[in-house]
Write a structure and sequence with these properties.
6 helices; alpha/beta; CMP-NeuNAc_synthase; N-acylneuraminate cytidylyltransferase
Length: 229
């Protein structure tokens, strides 16, 4: 059994109501629900929310909202793992159930990426998540002081050629697959056995601030107009 859990609380601060704000013609959460439905690998698509409006919109988009998220897991400090664990417990999922935490603000997520995550989990990964490459060698990162001065964090890499530095990846902030038992045990996401679904950088954008939102709108529009994969 495979279940998508989409966390979508109502109290977002930096972008008010961002989970249901209109993004390219539909509520933001609608893009995640549509991708989950198109992936054709989920037995259930469930939204975890504390908010009646979000619940109503999620149901209209084709998801279930069979419970309300507890208040202590709907504030600014609630981590993802306990939220998904609570959903697994509320749904009374068997320990071996494959549960995909799919963020509500992931309009770039593709059905085939979700399906690939399921395949990696099926091959024994503890977690399977979307990742992408850093656009610049992190070994050459700079530290900037209050006075505007800059210095290398690791000066030893100043003269090392870019091609000789280890490639680095980061979480794409779209989805995370794991077994229900892994979620309820509170197992850290970035631990032993985790696997990554590689995404191109042009399909990755965090949406935490108004600037992020605008950038995502521009990027999404460019992808649609250009027909990029």
């Amino acid at each position: 059994m495979k279940v998508a859990v989409i966390p979508a609380r109502g109290g977002s601060k930096r972008i008010p109501r961002k989970n249901v704000a209109t993004f390219h013609g539909r509520p933001m959460i609608g893009w995640s629900i549509a991708a989950a439905r198109a992936a054709a690998c989920f037995d259930r698509i469930v939204v975890s929310t504390d908010d009646d409006e979000i619940a109503s919109i999620a149901e209209a988009e084709g998801a279930e909202v069979p419970f309300r998220r507890p208040a202590h897991l709907a504030d600014d400090h609630a981590p993802t793992v306990p939220v998904v664990a609570q959903a697994a417990e509320a749904l009374v999922l068997p320990p071996d159930t494959a549960v995909c935490c799919l963020y509500a603000t992931a309009p770039f997520v593709r059905p085939e990426d979700l399906a690939e995550g399921a395949r990696l989990l099926g091959r024994g990964a503890s977690y399977a998540m979307a990742v992408t490459r850093f656009g610049y060698p992190i070994q050459r990162a700079l530290r900037r002081g209050r006075d505007g001065s800059v210095e290398m964090i690791d000066p030893a890499n100043m003269l090392v050629r870019s091609q000789d530095l280890e490639e680095a990846w980061h979480d794409a902030g779209q989805f995370y697959w794991a077994r229900a038992a892994t979620w309820t045990a509170g197992t850290p996401v970035f631990g032993p056995g985790a696997a990554g679904v590689a995404l191109p950088a042009y399909r990755v954008q965090d949406i935490d601030t108004p600037e992020d939102w605008r950038r995502a709108e521009v990027l999404f529009g460019a992808l649609e107009a250009g027909g990029w994969d």
